[in-house]
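Bug #77: duplicate submission created two jobs. Keeping one. Sequence:
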Amino acid sequence: TEQYEQMLNYTGCGNTVNANHPYVSKFILDSLKHWVREYHVDGFRFDLASALCRDEKGTPLASPPVIRAIAKDPELSHVKLIAEPWDCGGLYQVGSFPNWDRWSEWNGSYRDVMRRFIKGDEGCKSDFARRISGSSDLYHVNKRKPYHSINFITAHDGFTLRDLVSYNEKHNMANGESNNDGSNDNLSWNCGSEGVTNDAAVNGLRWRQMKNFQ
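Kept job's structure:
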């Protein structure tokens, strides 16, 4: 065809496939069931899962067919379903990811509030209390429970736990992208010295801060 079609990128990895096309949905579902049946996989975590909640134009869907099909499939009824409830297109669904009482979510609000509280930011005690007690403001509809919130501090994205207490800014020059890769908003605190140091007091504080996150 000579007609130009605008490519849509909601994952940061190139053109995003329309997961809610019937054939694509079937392929995804068949793959998940194959992994459960043949390899005894007992759970799945879906990276940038909100990209699966869009139609062919990129418009968010209130009830994405593929998300519902995964939640309702009897062969998948015993496996864990965990969504990273956002994507690179700005769709942020923490607390509102379509779930059918089955999907759990990475709780990005928990991560951010814990990081702010541990490093000593002011004005976040109330948010800390909400997050540490189950985030009921986010997970209180459709019979959802505190266990639908996957609480975490660090993951494969962004700063490691050591980075969180060692750097105020990212330093990714070695990656060859002029330090433009990765998030600039890590809510970190270097404990008084940027990066590796021989200062015993700083290193001691960093160790205590890392234990505070546990």
